[in-house]
Design brief:
7 copies of one chain form a homoheptamer. Chain A is mainly beta and 72 residues long. Chain A has one helix at 8-11, and strands at 17-22, 27-35, 41-48, 53-60, 65-69. The relative contact order of chain A is 0.27. Chains in contact: A-B, A-F, B-C, C-D, D-E, E-G, F-G. Chain F binds chain G through residues 1, 3-10, 23, 25, 39, 62-63, 65-70, 72, and chain G through 22, 24, 28, 33-36, 40-42, 46, 53, 55-61, 63-64. Strand 4 of chain A pairs antiparallel with strand 5 (65-69) of chain B. Chains A, B, C, D, E, F, G: Residues 5-72 form the Sm domain. Chains A, B, C, D, E, F, G: InterPro entries: LSM_dom_sf (IPR010920), Sm (IPR047575), Sm_dom_euk/arc (IPR001163).
Chain lengths: 72, 72, 72, 72, 72, 72, 72
């Protein structure tokens, strides 16, 4: 992956599964549909890791995100 | 749903029921009436999930929102 | 109520009783006198719900507001 | 009192006694000397309500203020 | 003291002893050397009130300041 | 290392292993791939120090970072 | 030291040992290499006071800094 700016790794993850950890520690795994510079993000085919609930989609507010990593 | 920018999923949810989780963990389910870029939001026919109270409408301040997802 | 932008529901509540919940969970019920885009707000004929104290008026700082809803 | 914008109630309280509650819950009662748009504020003839200490003046930083109300 | 804007009381305290309380409740007493609009501040001949330690100077970051008052 | 502005030490760490501590105390060690002015950062060959998990990469949101230091 | 603006005391501490306290209370002692207006800072020959660990350098994010003072 050619990463020049940090946000590149998010845009290049479009269509791939990623894991997002929020500032409150909650984690969400899903396929990245869209992201912006905050980075607000929309995932689909989502799993809420702490409840194991399945969701068709989720909107995660950028300023509440702590980190993003590949799914374990 | 054609999602280009993350906020598209909110604007495309207008008139539909969504579930909003605030930074303090409180959740509100209701029909999306209006939203903006923060995203401040107004829902109607609202249920406060932790008290099960019914409200005709609610204004949720954007910077206090953590995530938005379809109702369970 | 014709709500185009979320803040419309606040401006259209002018003169009506509303309930405001702050980020620390405290709730204030009163008649909306004025609001702005933050939304800083002034209520009159106010009840502090957790102490049941009556106040002639209150100024609530916008960035400390979590949500606004009709009085229960 | 003619209140058009919420901050009007602060400017119109100049010279009067008001009660200011900070985000950490501490309350200060005193005569309003000056305020600005944040609203940073200076009170004089001040009482720190939780210690009952008397102070000639106090500067309260705007972003740490939660609400303002008339003294009880 | 002629206070038009709240920050005037800080600029007019230059060379005088003041007491600064931070958002975490820690208090610092010292002679005000310099301040700006945030208000970042530099005090000299400083006492850390909770440890009673003496310091030649201290830089206090403005956004972490809660209030400023005369020394007790 | 010639460090004129603080962010220089991050840009000059590109390709090197660094340790990043987040505001919640969690620490991540990895090779710096990209950074920007916030400083959002992407690390690869990552170790989550508190779980010892290995990750191919991680995106760390700048405003949630507390400090950066060389690996111990 | 000629201090006109508060940040002057940081720029004038370049090459000198200072002690930086973060918002979470952690303290770092080291020689100031670089600082900017936030004030992001880089120290070298660093001691992490609560663990007594020695580090060749550290980058401290400005918005997470509470205060700066001379080493005790």
């Amino acid at each position: 992956m050619e990463i020049i700016r940090p946000l590149d790794i998010i845009t290049q993850s479009k269509g791939k599964e990623i894991l997002v950890e929020m500032k409150n520690g909650k984690q969400y795994k899903g396929k990245l549909v869209a992201s912006d510079v905050h980075p607000n993000m929309v995932l689909e085919e989502v799993t809420e890791l702490d409840t194991n609930k399945k969701l068709p989609w989720i909107f995660l507010r950028g300023d509440n995100i702590s980190l993003i990593k590949p799914p374990e």
